[in-house]
Protein 1
Amino acid sequence: MKNQHQGIGMTSQRTRDRLITRLREAGIVDERVLEVMASIPRHLFVDEALATRAYEDTALPIGHGQTISQPYIVALMTSVLLGDEPPLRVLEVGTGCGYQTAVLASLVKEVYTVERLEPLMKGARRRLVGMGNRNIIYRLADGSLGWPEKAPFDAIITTAAAPELPLALREQLNVGGKLIIPVGEDTQELRLIVRTAEGYTDELLELVNFVPLVSGKV
Ligand code: SAH
């Protein structure tokens, strides 16, 4: 895809590298994730008017009341998801602008991504296909129900906060599979749920602030 910002200071490789330094300082140590995030042009995932802010470690508006997640949170969730044995098939709920999708698609075999707002889904697909991604499968639907026809997954990542843990999601995990999801309303907990042979483990990773996961008809 033609990158009209290439060469402009605010969106140069040096600007991108500063974000990576900032992520290291914030405690991100996974080199696989840092390398991929250094290579993905985050400014192409936001409106041109916000492009100069795309390498700040902050969430930004993407229209329709939604946001592109803070880079630190993308890096944290992706590091936890990869772990020692990177998953092959990953379900992402909440495509938004597609930035987290792009990060995942560079690190795992297949990404199944679900978004409930059509204009965001279309924009994300156009961008991601334009950047040459061929291992992403898109769906316009309520992702709180998962994607039963494509289940089970090795990992599921949700980038919108569920009021309560959606049980359909953890049921679509393989044994050993991970669900990374923010849960809660005012106070949101980013949780890591792992499916074991006997049931599930549940761990609190961090307090976070996501837009809400909206259930029901699209
Ligand atoms: N990973 C995205 C985050 C976008 S914000 C990014 O970095 O851009 C969260 C997204 O979740 C929004 O686009 C919102 O429309 C979507 N969303 C909310 N509830 C959903 C649901 N039930 N199913 C699918 N997508 C949902």
Protein 2
Amino acid sequence: MESHQHIMINRRTFVHGSAAASALALAAPMSAGFARSDSALRLVAKPGSAHLLEPGQPQTPIWGYNGLVPGPTLRVPQGQEFDVELINKLPQPTTVHWHGIRIINAMDGVAGLTQPPVQHGDSFNYRFAPPDAGTYWYHPHYRTWEQLARGLHGALIVDEAKPPEVDQDLVMIFDDWRIGTKGKIDDASFESMHDISHAGRLGNILTLNGKFTQDFSVLSGQRLRLRLINASNARVMGVSFDGHDPLVVALDGQPVDRPFAPARNTILLAPAQRADLILDCTEEPGTKSEIVAHAGRERLTAGWLVYDEKRRQRQNVLADFPILQPNPMPTDIDLDNAAPIDLVMSGGARSAFRSAEYKGQELGIRELVRKHKKAWAFNGTVGFPDKPLAVLETGKTAIVRMINKTAWPHAMHFHGHHVREISHSGREPQRFWRDTVFMQPSETVTIAFKAHNPGKWMLHCHMLGHQRGGMSTWYEVV
Ligand code: C2O
Ligand code: CU
């Protein structure tokens, strides 16, 4: 019983010399996977296999876009229309959700809310012009807790007309996997009530860009733009770069007002969150430095910055930080005339949760758990309700007070809009525009946004077992 609760990410860091012995080839430039937007793109969701484990260990059967984990990195210029055909070759229906994009509602990819699920053998055309530059990602929005965990996700990079000058622009997708015997995904745990009602389905293997460890070839003196994405189901992680002092220039796609150095040089990423960093390669030629993922007290080697013997000729001026231009997102929130919305989060293990409404009926916790595998509620209702949490008129500011009455952290994701904290119990609010807001147990976080994007938008916890277990609702902008 206890052991199940303590599945940890593999302690590979402590295996002496494992990294050196792995003899990984240097990472192929990510551009190998880049798809240009001038031709219509095709994403085939299908089974495949990936080498997620250490060299010498078996391959893992996965589901991936074009059979790959992660799926191809898609790049599109800001504001340019982009056309993607999804072909479903999975044994289940699926959709694609473009996480963090202020997209037109019909393209948001939420099965049952914005489109019918795409059946096996069918296809669907997604066409939209991403309004904001930055680092986004895509994944299914049908049985997400299973499909994402099987490997269906990839980066969507929206390029600024004038990107800051850097020597390399690198995508780093962190994921954690629960691998069982013979290298297979532990799929019995997708429906584990323990995971659903606790911290979600945590993995035992961490990958960076689908690899057990991933090397990145750099030159001393180079300036890098790193696009970090946490694609895990439930794992909150910190990422640091030994010996380096990166600056955060954007979060969840949106540029920050002023670049800043994260506390302890570690970037905290809750599930679904992203960060854009500027990192100057300040180490000596011929050295290598560790890319570390921190999960709780675990310290894992995710990969390495491998310094070439050569040096980059022109040295960067360290003070000359590129600052990203703000996106054309409405930031003029009107707190005085706002619509106040309360969202009380309850349920989960170790809580006083006794009953909740599910599909129009008040049910006791036993029945919710045993019959429906539900354990969480928003405002006393287990998701997904027929009625929206709120109906907002276009132009109206919404203030959502999220009250976490549970014993667990949550990663609250808003579709359709980015939101900004205006208060955060016990500390200063984080004045960033985000699509996924991380909350600790018992915290109350109040966010605001200007409703400007019409349609039906989901609001859910991105710890996907929690979403599966009832933490999901929706709001409508009319
Ligand atoms: Cu990243 Cu509702 O999703
Ligand atoms: Cu949650």
